[in-house]
Structure formats: C-alpha cells, structure tokens
Amino acid sequence: MPNISPRQLEAFVAVATTGSVGRAAQAIHLSQPAVSMALAELERMLGQALFDRVGRRLLLNEAGSALLPRAHEVLERLRELPASLAPSAAPGGQLHIGASNTVGNYLVGELLGGFVSAHPQVAVHLTIANTEQIVAQVNRFALDVGCVEGAVTHPDIEVLPWRQDRLVVCARPDHPLARRRRLAARDFREVRWILREHGSATRALTERALAALPPAAGLLELGQSEAIKQAVIAGLGIACLPEVAIADALAAGKLRVLSTAFLDLRRNLSLVVHRKRYRGPLLQGFLDSTRSAAPAPRGGRRSTA
Amino acid sequence: MPNISPRQLEAFVAVATTGSVGRAAQAIHLSQPAVSMALAELERMLGQALFDRVGRRLLLNEAGSALLPRAHEVLERLRELPASLAPSAAPGGQLHIGASNTVGNYLVGELLGGFVSAHPQVAVHLTIANTEQIVAQVNRFALDVGCVEGAVTHPDIEVLPWRQDRLVVCARPDHPLARRRRLAARDFREVRWILREHGSATRALTERALAALPPAAGLLELGQSEAIKQAVIAGLGIACLPEVAIADALAAGKLRVLSTAFLDLRRNLSLVVHRKRYRGPLLQGFLDSTRSAAPAPRGGRRSTA
DNA sequence: ATCCCCGTATCATTTTTATTGATGCCAAAC
DNA sequence: GTTTGGCATCAATAAAAATGATACGGGGAT
C-alpha cells in the first residue's frame, strides 16, 4: 500500500493554485517533469484524475476540489509542527493577503497595522487586484484571505463583514459646484466625470449613482484612484471616490466634497475566506485582529483590554 | 530547510506508543536502525529531544507529549485523504478499542454492535485489560478509545459517561440465603466470598460493600468473572458480580440474586479518550454510535430509530 | 565489584526512490 | 500548414533511506 507523500500534495496544491504545471514547478522550486510525475503518481494512487485535461490546460475537477482543502490543511499542519514545540515563540510563517484597490492603497494601515505589529516575524504578502480577481485567487487557495468591496456570492467563500466605506463626490475648490451649499440632481448637467476602469467595484457603484443624474458631458477613465484624484485637482473634472482616498487632499484644501446627500454611496468592505480553508494560528490570528481592530475609529489609540 | 517527513512522524508515534524503538520498528515493519535514525533526524531538525533517555528506556518528555497529538493527527489526516474522495464509500480503516474485563466480555455486543454493523469495512481491534492499563494505553495513543468502569482522573483524558452498571450478590438457588425474602447485613456472617483479583474495579467495589458486612468466613480469589460464576454455581460460595455477567445463569435458574437492597452497588461505565486526540470520522463515528445506542435498556430489543 | 544481557546508537553497503535534462507528443494560435 | 507553448515520457544520475553488522552503555545477576 503506497503512501501519499507531502511532495505529491505540494505539487498538487501548487498546480491547483497556479493552474499550470510549469508555474507550479517554479513556485515550489522543482523541475517541470518532477511536478508532472508527482501529480501523475498521486492520481494513480488515488485511482482517479484530479484535473480535467482540456487541451493544454488543467482544470480542477470535482475530486480535485474535494481534495484541495484537505491537502492544503495537511501541509500546513505539517509545517506548523516545529513551531508548536517552541513554547512562546511567535508563529513566524507566511500570510498571503489580497485586497481590492481601495482597501489595499488607503486602508492598508487599518487592515494590517495591528497584526503586523503583534506578529513581527510573519511575512505578509499583499496582493492588490480587483474584487473578482481576489475572490478567484482565494477560491483556488492562492490567497489566504481577501479584503474586498463588492458583494461576493460564491458557495465556497465565506464573507466576514469588516467595516463600512463611503464614496463622496469631489471637485476642485474653485469648481462652480463646489461653491454652492445645496445641490440637486439637475445641477450635474454638463459636468465631466472621471471614473475608474471597468471591473472596479468603485466604478460599479459610481455608475449606479450616475444613473440618477443627468447624462455626463464627458468621461475620463483612469486605472487608479490616485490618478483620478490628481486629475480632479488639476481641474479635469469631478469624480466619485472613496472618502479615505482623498482625506489628505481635503485637509490640504486641494479638494472639496460636494453635498450630494441625495445619493447613497455607502458600501460594505468584507473579508473573504475559503470556507474549507484550514484556519491555522496565523490566519485565525489575522481574522481575529481585524475583528477587534475594526471598531476602533483610529489607529493611534490602544484599547486597554 | 529540511522538511519533516511522514516516515519520521510515523517512527516517532510508534516509539511513543510502544515505548521502545525495537517494538516500534516491528510495529511499522521497519528495521530497528531505521527507526532509530528517523527519530534522531526528527529530533535534530526540531532542535530538541522528544524523549528523555534514562538508562535504556525512552520516556516521552514535555516536547514529545506536545508533539504526539499533532503528529498523530497529521498522519491520520494523511491516511484519510484517499478515502475522502470516494463519495459514499465506507471509511474502512482501523479502530483500536480497549475495554475493561467486564465490558469486554459481557457488553461487547452493546458496545460494538451498532458500530460494526454500520461500518462493516472497519477493522476493529478490541484489547481487554484492567482500567489502569487501558487508560495508560489511551494516554500514549496505543488505543483510540477505552471503555472502563473505574473513575478516571487524568488531565489529558476525557471521560464520557456511557451507561450504568450494577453489581449483584448471587448464590446457588439452594443456598440458605437464597431462600429468604429479606436479608440484613448480619445474615452474611459465616459465608464464603469469591472475589476477583486485586486491581479489578469489580473487586474494589465489592470490597467497599463487604466493609458494611460481617467479616467473611472464607475468601476465594479468581481472575475472571466467568470462573467466579462457575464457582458459585458449583456451590463454592457467594459472589458479587456484574448483573450482565450472570444474566444467562439467572435465566437458566442456576443462580439467584440475593435481595441486598441495603447495598449500593451501582457504578458508571465510561468511555475514555485522549483529550487532544484527533477525532477522525472513524473515532467520531464510534463515539456517536455509543451515545445513541447507550440509552437502550437491554441488548435483546432493538430500537426503531 | 564484575560479568552478562538487553536494547539503543552508529557505520558502511546496498537498494530504492526521486530529480534532472532531453525528447516526444498534442492542442491551440497564426 | 506551420509554429508555438505546454504536458507527458524516458534514461541517467544524484540523493536518500533501509539493511545487516557492530559498537556502546546501563541494569540486573552472581
């Protein structure tokens, strides 16, 4: 009775997460044939294929999906063994976190601050991409946890509410609309909007808001919130951006928020985790840190308990 | 960074459970030097000893005790991987159950019946020994679960109440005491008692009862309940035995129970499991099966649910 | 105190296993 | 139809582990 080796599991997990034998090989520092053979041997022992070979692509099939969480867990527990003996040693491992654009750029401190200071020996990898990509990577175990804006509805993904976020419409202080106290929808005729790219959750929410306004005079599409902010400051138009993204520019007097009380621009930021993902001490610790740190308004003050 | 191999864990677990490198070697079908080297390599990688070498004996030290449950769990999860893919296949593994003398001999059906019929492919190993030995083996992971009579108070052992048991005082139907309706303590002067050996939980409880009675006229000590039963039938004396052990003899009219209502001879039978033992589907299934089957009053009748 | 026995640790050799680089093969893109 | 990119296969090599023999060392017996 041949036993499953950790190398085979490692190869399988790597192939599943990267989606290709070649990338998996370089991810775990092995040659391509080694990974191919390890995977083949694993499938032979299990008596069934873990991937559907469609063309030159490997797609995780049902059996593979069932195995992936368990294999991942076994490997992680195996890696945790040495650390579990040092009594009070910090875990010291790797944590792969994904974040959407807004969160990753402007809420990094709030998201990671408490955790990294409490666990200095942990190597944290932050990947920034749009919601869809983050969720996909969490789903195939390439990321341990994601923090995104959009509402996620995937059966294998668990969504943990983190905090709320608000978009605001902003303009240069000398913009005509910026001088007025109260605004109505019809005031937004003939303005030029600057938007994020398609696929962005900020863009999606902005478009929902724009539907309630008169047609825009012109559109400008930029890939980054920061770029949009600079464009608004330069007077190229007005934009709808996360308030956390323009806090500094508001304080500096370079931007002004328009009073668009008639628009509901709030949204929920959530943490997403694979439901069957093994929550080791590191991952669990991170999730706990976000739950305890989230209610605090600012990072400067520390709670006593 | 050298990784821990399953072989090393297997060797470590085997040494920990058997208490000797040699026995561990033959248990996992390896040569003695192989186990010795695997263990040495594991300790080298962990940077600390798992056993205290006192003389020619290996005693699990603190670090080893911390590692054992985790190592055991990793190995079991690894073994479970193949089975987790077959959708509705029966688990099919090994389950090592320990039982004290009374339970193992007379309550086997009640203890194992429901489980083995529900899981035909599971190989069940039943070890019979006294309470102390069973607990010791559960504690060093040599047994998955034990079923004993005595009260266990070990910090690493979890005790799950199973069912109650009762001892009864019995004699031949033609014994002078067997003919009388009501008995008192003083009626037990000048009788010959037949007891179990020292170390037996039945013996301990019997002695507690005897302390409330007049001194015995004579003692006879036998190692097995069945032997005692036959001795009582042969008229060699009276005995205090589990009622489940003499049920058939009572029905056959070969024995009679004395009405000793003034003695409290009830005791609790419990399942004992190591607190940190990984409860895989097999072990968990067995524990569940005992909890659901226990409330049934007798073995002859089957409950519908 | 000394000898003997039992069990573990160590050593060199052999056997097995895994890894590598090269090559064949197939499907998709041009 | 040709080319490209990627996975599977093959023989050779390198690494690791298992084995049998042996050295070491602590208890128990005399």
List strands and helices in order, with pairings.
2 copies of one chain form a homodimer.
Chain A: H1 6-18, H2 21-27, H3 32-46, E1 51-54, E2 57-60, H4 62-83, E3 94-99, H5 101-106, H6 108-118, E4 123-128, H7 131-139, E5 145-148, E6 157-171, E7 192-195, H8 201-210, E8 218-221, H9 225-233, E9 238-242, H10 247-251, E10 256-257, E11 266-274, H11 281-293
Parallel strand pairs in A: 3-4, 3-5, 7-8, 7-9
Antiparallel strand pairs in A: 1-2, 5-11, 6-9, 6-10, 6-11
Helix pairs in contact in A: 1-2, 1-3, 1-4, 2-3, 6-11
The structure holds a DNA duplex (30 and 30 nucleotides).
Protein model, in words:
The structure is a homodimer of 305-residue chains. Chain A contains 11 helices and 11 strands. Chain A is α/β, with parallel strands linked by helices. In chain A, strands 3, 4, 5, 6, 7, 8, 9, 10 and 11 form a 9-stranded mixed sheet that branches. A two-stranded antiparallel ribbon of chain A has the order 1-2. In chain A, a hairpin with a 2-residue loop joins strand 1 (51-54) and strand 2. Chain A is elongated. The interface between A and B is medium-sized, with 23 and 22 residues.
